[in-house]
């Protein structure tokens, strides 16, 4: 089994168009969630974490994508382009494969199609073709659509392909764009907070929605890994087998997934939890962590900074994990002040220095899905 | 269409059960049953449900895509006691389709088209994700293993069989349901395969792209 | 006028039962299968969190009553009787 090294990455979110820009904002404690009027999304004021569309338009313009591609496609192409720009990787080579992760892709086209795209543009397989065609890949990208665990599952699949020697490079890119479709749906679930979300806090009242794209490039070639070298060493998914939208009250699925990745691996220094800030999700995670004996490990949710970016979440937040490992910094759980989960867990309240060598990232989603993935740092 | 597959698969994994549903026909391990299809999909799915004689009221809350997956699962696992062989966390679901949840996506969009009649329904929205069918199957059959849902233009037998083979070969998972469940206005189709570790000598149908495709083609031509 | 109130309540209860069966996809049920005073959630019809949200949509769409807090909904939707009483108080 080959090792899987992180070779490059990129994040595009409300916190900027690069990993560095994003992390700078995290260190400064700046949240990208803003309460405002977004009439194209919802008739009333609400908190949202949105990508700067003016800057997106400018960057998309540089690649001549504005008229020919949807915002969803532009974000994916820009993110992947930025991630691979300093690599001597031949994206057209058959030893490179792209895996995409998204929950709803171009779904907004069902209601708003001003550029007059053909009906099949709404399909995720078509998005995969569009991205593949842009880069001229040898094989059409794969695309995973598995609710909010899509990003982590894509990383897990990619890690396994590298480990099994199927590809030299795996490019994993996740993206979701906020739309009226998505916002109205979550509103009908009454799961959106009126204020900026507060994961794990006793005053939390729901999630804040976000959008963005992110790319991680993986390779089996150790010489390509940056310093410090970061590896993905394990990943696992599971299902609660309990309810199609509510999480298991015992954290059943999450327990199974985390247990599997911890098995025989180094101790975890930091956990980037799913932490959506709904009353039930955060409770469920605290219960699973307690069952696993992880209640004292520093844990946070990045969603207080960028909201819930759905299909992109697993990728964006994994990159944030990489940054914590690169800088030996524990980033605070934005929005958290006082413990509010049924089991007490060790939520990072202030950004602080720490030895971050092994990080656990988790995700949970509609359909009872759960996934966990483990990253380690090995100083060269 | 993804061309990804190689012949590096071992002969350890077997198709121990399979089921397919199409318009007017259902196949259970190659045995075909006819069901009257008169053009109304929901009525058709309901009639199949009724014929099974089970009591599962949640069925009626599902969208057509999940109903199709649910029924396919009933035929796939009839008389099979997975619990006696495996821990629930050892049973995986590897699925794909082409339309994702488009049919229900359109339904949800219709609830928000008119600003004066703006009533999005949670019972509709929850089904606007293709992997919800995996949740329904997991609840029904107590399956707690790894789930993954791919979207591809056509069923890729090579990719799905190799992905499943590798999953069973390298992780804690010991059995897997491989599925293609697609629902659109123009048509629907469902194919599910139960894959288990089995001595090649005892196995009638090894997990292979050729075997998956052969079964699908046979059913399509019935 | 108690007589008229009773007739009104009976009609409302019947209407609610029809709506509940339709909106919550309780396909194998008839109006007579739902007891007015029985709990709708947990026991009884075994409705779940999504059903509760659908009832909140029903309240707004059909009766013009907006329920802001899902927790409030729990009390209102205890039984068809409590739903009917809530509607007659708030319309």
In short:
Chain A has 380 residues and is an alpha/beta fold. In chain A, 29% of the residues lie in helices and 21% in strands. With 91 residues, chain C is mostly helical.
Most extensive interface: pair and counts? A-B, 58 and 56 residues
CATH topology of the largest domain in chain A: Peroxisomal Thiolase, Chain A, domain 1
Order of helices and strands of chain A: EHEEHHEHEHEHEEEHEHEHHEEEE
What order do the helices and strands of chain C follow?
HHHH
Largest sheet of chain C: none
How many structural units, i.e. domains of chain A? Answer: 2
Spatial strand order of the main sheet of chain A: 1-8-6-4-5
Second-tier CATH architecture of chain C: Orthogonal Bundle
Our count of domains of chain C comes out at 1
- Count the helices of chain C. How many? 4
CATH superfamily of the largest domain in chain A: Thiolase/Chalcone synthase
CATH class of chain C: Mainly Alpha
Number of helices of chain A: 10
Corresponding CATH architecture of the largest domain in chain A: 3-Layer(aba) Sandwich
The tally of strands of chain A reads 15
Radius of gyration of chain A, in angstroms, nearest whole number: 19 Å
Percentage of residues in helical conformation of chain C: 55-70%
Q: From the 3D structure, determine the CATH topology of chain C.
A: Non-ribosomal Peptide Synthetase Peptidyl Carrier Protein, Chain A
Spell out the CATH superfamily of chain C.
ACP-like
The radius of gyration computed from the alpha-carbon positions of chain C, rounded to a whole number of angstroms, is 13 Å
- What is the CATH C level class of the largest domain in chain A, in words? Alpha Beta
